[in-house]
Amino acid sequence: MITRECLDLIKESVDIYDVVLPYVNLKKCGANWRGLSPFNGEKTPSFFVMPEKKMFRCFSSGNAGDIFRFIQLKENVSFLESVEIIANRFNIQLRFDSKSSDNSPMEFSKKDLFAINELANGVFVKNFQSSDISGQKVRNYWSEVRKFSSETANKQGIGLCKNDEKDMINILLKHKISIEAIRQSGLFYFKDEADLSTFRLRFRFRLTIPIRDIQGRIVGFSARVIEGMSTEISDAKYINSPETPIFHKGNILFGLQEARLHVNDADQFWLVEGQLDVFRCWEIGLLTAIAPQGTAITDAQLSTLRRYSSNLNCMLDGDAAGLRAADKLLRMAMAAGLEVKFYILPKDEDPDSFFKKQDQDIDSFCKAGISAMEFAVKYHSPNLSKMSSRQKADALQRIYEIISSSDSSIVHESLLDEVSQICGFDRRALAQDFATFYQRRKFNNPLPIKFSIENESNSVRKLNSAESQLLSIILSDVNWAKKIAEVVLPELMQASSSPQSTLLAKILNEIAENLWEGMESINNSNTFSEEEKNIAYSALADFNCENDLQFLVNTSISKLYSKFIKEKINELDKKISKISLDERENLRNLQRDRMHLREKLLRPPRVDVGMTN
Fold this sequence. Notes:
Elements: H1 4-13, H2 16-20, E1 27-29, E2 32-35, E3 47-50, E4 55-58, E5 64-65, H3 67-75, H4 79-89, H5 105-129, H6 133-145, H7 150-156, E6 159-161, H8 165-174, H9 179-184, E7 188-190, E8 199-201, E9 206-212, E10 218-225, E11 238-240, H10 256-259, H11 263-266, E12 269-271, H12 275-284, E13 289-290, H13 299-306, E14 311-316, H14 320-336, E15 339-344, H15 351-357, H16 362-366, E16 370-371, H17 372-380, H18 389-403, H19 409-423, H20 427-444, H21 453-460, H22 465-476, H23 478-487, H24 499-512, H25 519-523, H26 530-542, H27 549-578, H28 584-601
Parallel strand pairs: 12-13, 12-14, 14-15
Antiparallel strand pairs: 1-2, 2-3, 3-4, 4-5, 6-9, 7-8, 9-10, 10-11, 15-16
């Protein structure tokens, strides 16, 4: 675990303006900075950076937080990974608690895995650049056969794996890499995991391409057969690193660590099939090209892209398999909130071969894409004019399936407009038809609702006074938090069902169990949801610490206490109204309880007057 002192040092040393600036064009706005939201597409700036509070707040998305949370949201990483990113970016040495659980074998093996990949890639690059026959052959393949530049090879760390596993293992052991990490790295095949002499390099005699995560760390490799060189193990054209503790194919997009840096200029990603397609796109100027890891695109990958841009251009093969894959992608992209355009390449062409052969204006090519609905109509009704009424209705049902993948009514209306224009169908008839389909779909396939519009607005609304003040003070000062928890029981929040009350009660429970460490408890914990984290940071952003805290605390406690007692009195009043005169004893007991509650209203709990700021 990174020490608390180290976290405090990073927060104190690093200006949130410097963290946000690479992602947002900021302009001065009083004591703060303002810009367009990096989380939502918008035309009117609603994103604010508050240097004095060391926080950001985005009113369009509801996101708020400090430097660590900003990196978490933008880079789609964990809290600890966000700390590592910032520390590396600003050259701050991380310090770890020697007694923490982070010193477990798995944590160290993960660090070893990154080290293994870096060391291995260094060997592969050296092999690629060597003057021997194999080095010359692979460089000739790269530049003459595949027509890629030496600049791309140098920048991307293109390499060559030979059959020098003994030398490779000796290098790893020399760097004190554990044998367990060598086994887990995916770099080797082995017959006996306990016998290093049986280990064989997985990528031998192949051109190697390092795969990097969002931080630029090498998490695995893709390797391609080189014509005229025997691989000895597998004749498959491409082989990739297997799943390891640091490499999960469904979560990583090849090239994203570089493509994301250019999204602010392009506001779109180009999705292609393979790594060499990505390199070809980068060389011709399509700098936001990315690719999945040899598998179909996943929801997790699309969700990651949505953090940077809502626009996705998909280049696909024009064969049947490519069109089927595009149809599946379209539904997933709709659900992820992405707007997709398709660029259908000639049959048997991929982006690499297409752009290598073509001498055309890239700007003209970029304008040749077709919209999601144009693709859907062409795919599901290729001969629209010759189709029967029944066939048209069936095709529309499949198109409705795609449209309904989005949960936005505005998107539905816009896409129906487009279908009407493309097909020449009556707009009102389409609307009625879709409404019938949508109702039937919801009835037959009820889906869990993640967040309703009402819930979403509740999460970002201005907190009510009592909850806002107590929440802000508890979050800003651990000592005050403990003092408040001594007199405010979580039950006081039962009178309110708001998300803010739920969060306040949860924090009070954490304090009571001695688990609370301020905002670090929220940042580095799975106990609190993303919505609760936004509420917490929003409360801090709204808080004015110059006020009389003693007064604010006791006033807020009094309000919550009063609301709680009045709810109890109302419950007793309902019971009293239903009791018969024959139950005099019960009636007297209830009336006595009511009187005691009324007396309690006059004596709300208070924080010690001796508590200081």
